[in-house]
Amino acid sequence: MIKTAYQQELKFAGTCQKGNKGKAVKQIQEWLNLSVPRFPNATLATTVDSDYGSATEKAVKNFQKAAGLPVTGIVTEEVFTVLSSPLKKAFTIPAKQPDFRKQVLQIAQNHLTLKAIELQADDAQNLGPWVRSYCDGFDGSPFKWCMGFVQSVLDIASTAHGKSFTSLMPQTLSCDVVAMAGKQKGVLIDNAAVRKAPEKVKAGDVFLIRMAATSDWFHTGIITDIDGDVFETLEGNTDVKGSSNGTGVFARVRNFRKGVIDVFSIDGLSA
């Protein structure tokens, strides 16, 4: 694997309990907040302030109860492993499947199912373990992570097949860089060609949304199906409105005749 930043998010920094402060506590608070969608009936959301106070202790107890763990209010390695287990599952290299494209789709779907989302603070967004894993250790408002999601999925699938996704595209968080590389390699299908011959597009290919009449690509994701005038997609850093700077991994439907959507073919990896 090339994108290995996720490994840092899975490292256990030591047992934490009420009264502790610091980076390890912040990590626990992040995972408590990220666990809210997993356990919607448990009260887990708490302030991320690196201070293991009464609120964090209560949230930990609630998580332990919801996860079927002993309710102690103390985060041991066992508790942390359960807290961070979705990320570990998402980045685990699967057994190789004969169909590379199908494997890409299953890995992307896995990230959706495991509820890959970002955290936000009063003065920043694009925060947390999932974002840092996608963005090579970085997070914060400047780090739009849609390309990081796409390349993480391709990296996991390529590794399972003994390949490297960088043989097809450069490792980057920039949609522009990937699109320009696709043009140079002759694997970028522009929107005009997509509209004329949608059959050129295959499930597993990467879409890139472009500003009309410019070379400014600003959002990306993975195409899961082509039906008539629309792509079904799995994409990171979006939301139910289709934003290019949203909150999580979502499945969407996008009309390629109403927007300027180019396609980066992954034939070079699937062959």
From TrEMBL:
It holds the Pfam family PG_binding_1. InterPro entries: Peptidoglycan-bd-like, PGBD-like_sf, PGBDSf. Residues 22-83 form the Peptidoglycan binding-like domain. This is Peptidoglycan-binding protein.
